[in-house]
Specification:
DNA-binding; 10 helices; Tetracycline Repressor, domain 2; homodimer; Arc Repressor Mutant, subunit A; 204 residues; flat
DNA sequence: CTCGTAAGCGTATGCCGTACGCCTAAACCC
DNA sequence: GGGTTTAGGCGTACGGCATACGCTTACGAG
């Protein structure tokens, strides 16, 4: 009987993501999202309780796009995990500015639950069980989360690496040399290389 | 000839850290820090250019407390890396609320440079060089950063694990079982267990 | 004692999130 | 088709935030 909603929750989250992609995370405000939707600021509060819920919906929108279907079962288990890891990384990488948001929202995300369930299935099939399986899942998550952040907040290809390579070799002999070598390591090589180390440790 | 400063930069950073420890990260504001110091808000701007610089000084205060001396050389290399990792984790763990700050400030931190230099020395002594050394350092950093965040924002001992353990076993068979097993895994076991996996991968 | 300098502060601006209350569009019932 | 009800949409207002700008004042050098 009441007046129907003129927007879906998905449209609201999507408008917020548009704002973030255009103006960066600092540009996200209730006013900006409302303007993006062509409504008044306060009308937005008919769809979300507060800013935090809006942020959660943005994270869910991005993480919800992650494919959680089991990878081809004919692949070796470690490659199947690589597929799952890459899907998560790619989804976040499409909207790098939300990285800090995933921090606080990640654990409440249904999409993340489905992702973890699929990874656990692979680990179990690989014969990893009990406490080792707990540690493996958390370790993978920690690595992926950390690697995504490092990649977007302090990339190997960025200014930081150049600055480090010019550090006085007397004080930082290893750092300056390593930074020079880091120029030849691309983002994919870095991410997959670290993941391969972790998987090798799991397999031994 | 001019009037002398009544505060050191360290005192300013320390006051900010006091505010964060007491009121959490959302409680950090220029006003709150100024009040903590007994000065007016604008007087604070004689010590920092803006809020971002204040945050950087807080991170540096915490990270600066990390011991970067080489661990006892008679330990196996992987145990020496464990020592270095634990020092970083302990320093941040003493002020968990700053975790999100370390994200954006980490790469500019001299303390972090010294830490990385020490780790690189250990890796090199272990025979890891070239691009593999780049990947090893970044992988370690990614894991440690991610693990610290997971530990403080979604701890295994927290509500999230309980909630997951009560998920419908039909939809999430592995997650619910794994969450039940996770209750027996303490924070140290989780952190060191994941690190051990990574180090095993580096050693193979 | 005087004076230059920078420390410290007061004020004001323009953001922000959001509590509260009004107006009105629309769907149901008759 | 008209009346009623219900929630959608909006305007206003408040308190808190970072911070630009300019004044005042404590201090040390001479």
């Amino acid at each position: 009987m009441p007046r129907p909603r003129s927007l879906t929750h998905a449209q609201v989250a999507s408008a917020a993501l548009t704002v973030i992609d255009r103006d960066g995370l600092p540009g996200l405000s209730m006013r900006a999202v409302a303007k993006e939707l062509g409504m008044s600021t306060m009308a937005l509060y008919r769809y979300v309780d507060d800013r935090e819920e809006l942020e959660a919906q943005v994270v869910e929108l991005v993480l919800g796009a992650v494919d959680t279907e089991p990878p081809p079962p004919d692949l070796p288990w470690c490659e199947r995990i690589e597929v799952m890891a890459a899907r998560l990384r790619d989804a976040v990488g499409a909207h790098p500015a939300i990285v800090p948001l995933t921090l606080t929202q990640r654990h409440r995300s249904p999409a993340q639950l489905r992702w973890a369930e699929a990874v656990l299935a692979i680990l179990t099939a690989a014969g990893i069980e009990g406490e080792q399986r707990v540690i493996a899942l958390r370790g993978l998550l920690a690595y992926i989360v950390g690697a995504i952040q490092l990649e977007h907040l302090g990339p190997l290809s960025g200014d930081g690496t150049v600055a480090i390579s010019q550090l006085p070799p007397g004080d930082f002999p290893y750092m300056s040399e390593t930074a020079r070598q880091a120029r030849d390591v691309g983002p994919d090589q870095e991410f997959l290389g670290g993941l391969a180390v972790l998987l090798r440790g799991l397999g031994a």
